[in-house]
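Reviewers asked in the last cycle whether our approach scales beyond single polypeptides. To address this, we selected a multi-component target totalling 563 residues and predicted its structure end to end. The input consisted of the following lines:
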Amino acid sequence: MGFTAARPLCHGCTQGEAGSAQAPNSRMSAIVQFENVGLRYGLDSETLSDVSFSLASGGFYFLTGASGAGKTSLLKLLYLAQRPSRGVIRLFGEDVVTLPRKRLPGFRRRIGVVFQDFRLVPHLSVYDNIALPLRVAGMEEGEIDAPVSEMLNWVGLGDRGQARPATLSGGEQQRVAIARAVIGRPEILVADEPTGNVDADMARRLLTLFEALNRLGTTIVVATHDLPLMTQVGGAQMMKLDKGRLSDPTGSLRYPPKPQVAG
Amino acid sequence: MAGPDRRAAAAARHRLLPEGRVAGPMPWIIAIMMFLTVLSAAAGLGLGAAVKAMGADLAGRATVQIVEADAQQRDRLSASVAAVLRKVAYVRAVNPVAAAALADQIRPWLGQDAASGDLPIPALIDIELTPGQTDAKVDRLRRQLAAVSPKIRLEPHAAFLAPLAGLLSALGWLAGGIVLLMALATGAVVVLAARAAHDSHRGTIDVLHLMGATDVQIARLFQRRIGLDALFGGALGFTVALLVIVLLGARLLATGSELLSAIHLPWTSWAVLAALPIGCVLLAMLAARWTVLRSLGRLL
Ligand SMILES: Nc1ncnc2c1ncn2[C@@H]1O[C@H](COP(=O)(O)OP(=O)(O)OP(=O)(O)O)[C@@H](O)[C@H]1O
Ligand SMILES: [Mg+2]
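The resulting structure, written as C-alpha cells, was:
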C-alpha cells in the first residue's frame, strides 16, 4: 500500500509504547496561545474567565476539571467552533479572533477534533465517515482507500466499514470519531473525553494511537476525567479547569503524577 | 485525475447528503408551477404569433364603401370607382363585392329584408395595396376618392381589428407577466425548501464546517440536490403542460375558426417553452446556493 510511505501515521506504531511523548522544551514554539480569554454564553455569567496558557508545538496535553468546569467550552474555542467574548487566541502564530471568516476553513483543516458527542454523520457508513476529512480536503479518491482501511483496522473496526454509525455500540462510535479526527494527520488533535465509552484496553490502544501521532509532530490536547490514563503518557502535561478558570492562575502547566502503570 | 476516479470522487461527495429528496414537497410545487408557467407562456406566445399573423394579413387590405341610397346611382358610382382604383399603381387588386354575397353576409342580422333591395346597403369594393407605407397610401387614396364623390369611404381593415389586436396583445403581455410571477414564486419556494433542507441537515453541515469545508463546498451539495429535485418537478410539469397544449391545439384546429387557427406556435416559441424547465433548474440552483451561503454566513 502506498499509504505508509505517503502518510506514515501508524507506521511503526506498537501497542503499549507509553512514555515516549517528548516533554516540551524551548526548541518548540507555541502553537496555541490563549491570553485572558473569556467566554460568555448569552447573558449568563462567564463560563471561562481569564484563561491564559500556551501550548508548545509537538506537546501532549491533558485538560481536566469537574463536569461543567468548561472543558468542552475551552476546546470549542480551540477548534474554532466559537469565538471568545474577550481575550486573544493565537493558533499557528496567527490571531484567530480577528481572522476574516473565509480564512477559517484553512485553519480548521489543520485541527482534528474528537467531539464529546462523536457527531458521526448518521447516513454515511463508518468508512465514509472516516474518509470525510480527506474528501473535504480534496484528496483524490484513489488515495483514500488505503489510509481509511488502515485507520479502520487500527481502531479495531476493520470489518465494520460498511456499517451505519447507529448500528455501532457507543465505544465503537467513539473509535470511529477518533479515526476520523486523526486520519488527516492534523497539526493539532483536540479530543473531548475520547475514552469515555471504551474499556481500559481499548483506551490504552487509542492512547497509543495518539502517542504515535504525537511522535510525528501533532500537538495533542485531550480533555478527560481519567486520571490513570493521564499517567500513561510520560511527559504529558496537565491543565486543570476549575469553574471556568485555570486552577493555576500563573498559567504554568504541571506534570501529572508519575506513571503508575508500566508499559 | 482519471475518469473513474473523478466519478468516484463525485459519487462520494454526493453521498454527503442523504439519498432521496432533500426538499420535501418542493418538486411537486415546482411541477405545478412549471405546468402553469408553460401554459401561460404558450398562450402568450400563441397570442403574439396570432396578432403578428393577423397584422401581416390585414396590413394591405381595405374596403371602399359607396354609401348611396339610390341603387342605380350606387351601381354607376361603384363601377367608376372601381375603374379609378384599377388605374392606381399601388393598388394591387380590386374586387367589387357582389351585392348578393353582401346580402348573404348580413342576412343573419337583418333577416330576409336584407335581400329585398329596400334597405340602403352600401356597395363594397375590397382592395389590396402593394406592401409598405400603408398609411400614406391610404391617405392619398382617400383624397383621390373624395375628389370622385363625397359618398365614398375608405376603411383599412387593420382599423377594424385594432381593438381585437390590442386585446390579444394585452393578453400576451399578461401571460408574460404571469411567467415572471411564476419565476418569482419558484425562487421563493426554492429559498424556503433550501432553508428547510439546510436546517434538517444542520448536524452534517456543522461537522463538515468544523472539518474545514468551505461555504461553497457545502452550498454545492445543496445546489446539486435541489437542482435535481427542480429538474424532476420541472420536467414533470413541462411534460403535462405539453400534452395539454397539443390536445388543445387539436381542438382549436377542429373548431375550424380562422381566428383560433391563427394561434399556432412557430418553432422559436417551442424553443422558448423548452427553455422554461432549464431556466427553472438554473433558477432553483441559484436560489439554493444563495440561501445556503447566506445561512452559512451566520455561522462562525
Ligand atoms: N452552548 C451553550 N450555551 C449556554 N451554556 C452553555 C453552552 N455550552 C456549555 N454551556 C455551559 O457552560 C458550562 C461549561 O460547560 P462545558 O460543556 O464546557 O463543561 P465540561 O467541562 O465540558 O463538562 P463535562 O465534563 O460534563 O463535559 C456549563 O455550565 C454549561 O451549562
Ligand atoms: Mg464536556
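The mean pLDDT of chain B is 82. We regard this as preliminary and will revisit it once experimental data from Aim 1 are available.
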